[in-house]
Structure to design on (114 residues):
């Protein structure tokens, strides 16, 4: 996977599509950057070495310049993706796929209606 593919994957629409394929009762740990919602999503897409921080993502990506994988490439994380993962109450009861899906839909619905 390339850095461009990583950047392209970090969208609410992409996350929504992925969450819809998962068990909605699945819980995740927002506080664990290797096991949070966004990390699971990116690993599900095939990215390796994923670590998520509140506004940054690191992952191993393929570099055409070096033709090899480069570890720990930093990519900014859209605040809305972080907010979807974190939830309104900032408690682990909020950290379930179906609740995250609801938060995604709340954000996307006004955009789709414009």
């Amino acid at each position: 996977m390339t850095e461009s593919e990583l950047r392209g994957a970090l969208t609410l629409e992409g996350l929504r599509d992925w969450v819809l394929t998962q068990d909605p009762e699945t819980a995740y740990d927002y506080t664990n950057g290797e096991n949070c919602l966004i990390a699971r999503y990116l690993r599900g897409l095939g990215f390796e070495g994923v670590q998520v921080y509140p506004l940054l993502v690191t992952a191993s990506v393929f570099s055409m310049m070096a033709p090899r994988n480069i570890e720990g490439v930093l990519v900014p994380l859209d605040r809305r993706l972080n907010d979807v993962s974190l939830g309104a109450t900032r408690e682990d009861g909020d950290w379930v796929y179906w609740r995250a899906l609801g938060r995604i839909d709340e954000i996307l619905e006004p955009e789709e209606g414009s």
